[in-house]
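User: Is it possible to get a 3D structure for a protein together with its bound compound? The compound here is pyridoxal-5'-phosphate. I've pasted both below.
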Amino acid sequence: MLLKLEGNNPAGSVKDRPALSMIRAAEERGHIKPGDTLIEATSGNTGIALAMAAAIRGYRIILIMPDNMSEERRQAMSAYGAELLGVPAGKMEMARDLAQQMQAEGKGIVLDQFSNQDNPAAHSGPGGTGEELWRDTGGRITHFVSSMGTTGTIMGTGRFLKSKNPDVQIIGLQPAEGAQIAGIRRWPKEYLPSIFDASGVDRTMDITQEEAEDTMRALACVEGVFAGVSSGGSVSAALRLSEELGDDAGATICAIVCDRGDRYLSTGCYSPALSRPRPAGVSDFWPAVRRLAGRGDVYVLFTAGADAERADGASWCPDCRRANGAIESVVRGTGKVLLVVDVGQRPEWKSPDHPLRLDPDVELTCVPTLAKWDGFAGPGGMRVSDRLGAEFDGLDPAECAHLVSAFVAKHG
Ligand SMILES: Cc1ncc(COP(=O)(O)O)c(C=O)c1O
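Assistant: Yes, that's possible. Here is the predicted structure of the complex:
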């Protein structure tokens, strides 16, 4: 699985290419000239990219966007000199109507990213997103995954890839009912962007807000890729696909990371309490272990759950609070798989009938416990072969790290 980091473009998103492409092509056709006023409805990134391009080429620009767009986006547009108009939160259709109305009143020219073929052309043309993906994968790409807003990215990139290999599968994702993910939309039929052609998409997947945000946070703290919410959506779709296809499919799945996470900080989606990956619960434990069965080098950290009274979301167990950070960073730092399991709140854990105390393949008696998993006994096909538990009592984080390093080294 490969990610294309479009947040590394100059104005920070997948929209830099379409913004420049729409302005250049309109100039070449004599439709606009420097000094004119441009008007665009945008959920943010197109606005920032157009504001940059307008500043470079000498245009005045008015951007219309829903009020729930993040403060960073607004300020970035203003920084490039754009004027902003708001419509109520989530009302992208209203923003599009207002842009058209202002154009009809002679207040400026709408390039209209939703109907403008220069938008997908930025991804299908020379030097576009499709060509880069084809070149950088050496033609090995088998699946392309993109979230869908104007659908410019999926249409243009998909078109290019299919022209090289008609078997490349194009997968689009849209927000599930009720999800509000900046930049992507479940369009009502009458607002479907006219650049969209359903025959260019082999499959669509729905992504919930929670799945997109959880994947986005995991991307940052597990892979070091700091991205926005729609990118969490495309990566979670790619992960689902990868699981469906299995290791033997020989697939090369490429997903677009549309922009960077710093554009979303003020929304709180990266707050420290949320940013740690959530541990699996006891009921998720065996299904999770089953998915890992057959893989070597699997470790499991059994930890006491988050204390509901603590704002930082840390565990109610003082030994877990001291040891967990060291355990997680040492084990993950060696490239091993670490499954983190929350044994529950204090009263559940103290019960002698706790399912993990009773399970003969686990026999858990203390938290934190770091277990090495091996073998093929038990319902999950694995059992504990060695563990550290009481050894963590009273140690400081540096001592815990030392202990865990020796434990992992012992198991090769
Ligand atoms: C954050 C984000 N994700 C996804 C998209 C979707 O890209 P496209 O409009 O090319 O479908 C956009 C578009 O603005 C976006 O800003």
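The first strand starts at residue 2 and ends at 5. Residues 4 and 256 are 5 Å apart (CA to CA).
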